[in-house]
Amino acid sequence: MPRSGTTLMRAMLDAHPDVRCGEETRVIPRILGLNSQWRKSAKEWNRLQEAGVTDEVLKSAVASFIIQVIAGHGAPAPRLCNKDPLTMKSAVFLSDMLPNARYIFMIRDGRATVTITGFDLSDYRQCMTKWNSIMEVMDEQCTTVGDKCLKVYYEQLVLHPEPQMRRILDFLKLPWNESVLHHEEYIGKDVKLSKVERSSDQDVLEEVDQLAPMLRKLGYDTSRNPPNYGKPDELVSKKTEDLHRNREEWYKKAVEVVNDPERVEKPLPYPN
């Protein structure tokens, strides 16, 4: 799901010396969407079969396209990853084509995620029902893929980065490396943050049980507003303190790596 921490996740993985993710390709979800349309239309699917474009031919072609895009849009590395969030809607199909691939399903409280472009924030009901339907599909896809798909909660990754990253790297069969805990030092250097990728704003909405039952299914407490996700680890507290104390330096760095500098809030005075 877009705006669920996928940019943070890929930046942390990109900081690992054995991994290269890179920016969103934007074309992979589109080719997967076309593939889905072809298969849903009986008329179109029959035409493809009659033309000799069988299931195996199509799978092979789509797999080759995806591999070429992932491999070709950045520097070579021992392990490659793709950050396009909506590919999780096709995880079962991808798993069939790419049996050695592993999938990370980023989950974030929908009351924050609905600030995503494409949601009409003037229509609260539309926001949460749309989030719910997409998450329902992705959750089912991840569950069907089984032990090749790992569910990662954005809030827990932010509050407890080391245990979460150890769990993630173990799932990916990658050696532990401290650099993943200091990914911010690599932004603009080894880690290239797309100037059009957006990280997320927090927007807490109320009364969502009927509109978004997936919130409770995924373990979120919908009775609290604002939500309480727990206390941060010491490392996170120290980095937050550093962010406040060196706010001017971090502000300048943020302006350098985003497409629209006006979106970056200017730092407030730090209390003595």
TrEMBL record:
Its EC number is 2.8.2.20. InterPro entries: P-loop_NTPase, TPST-like. It holds the Pfam family Sulfotransfer_3. Signal peptide: none annotated. Residues 231-242 have a biased composition (Basic and acidic residues). It comes from the Eukaryota. One of its GO terms (molecular function) is protein-tyrosine sulfotransferase activity. It catalyses: L-tyrosyl-[protein] + 3'-phosphoadenylyl sulfate = O-sulfo-L-tyrosine-[protein] + adenosine 3',5'-bisphosphate + H(+). Residues 219-242 are annotated as: Disordered. Keywords: Disulfide bond, Glycoprotein, Transferase. The keyword Ribonucleoprotein does not apply. Catalyzes the O-sulfation of tyrosine residues within acidic motifs of polypeptides, using 3'-phosphoadenylyl sulfate (PAPS) as cosubstrate. Belongs to the protein sulfotransferase family. This is Protein-tyrosine sulfotransferase. It comes from Angiostrongylus costaricensis.
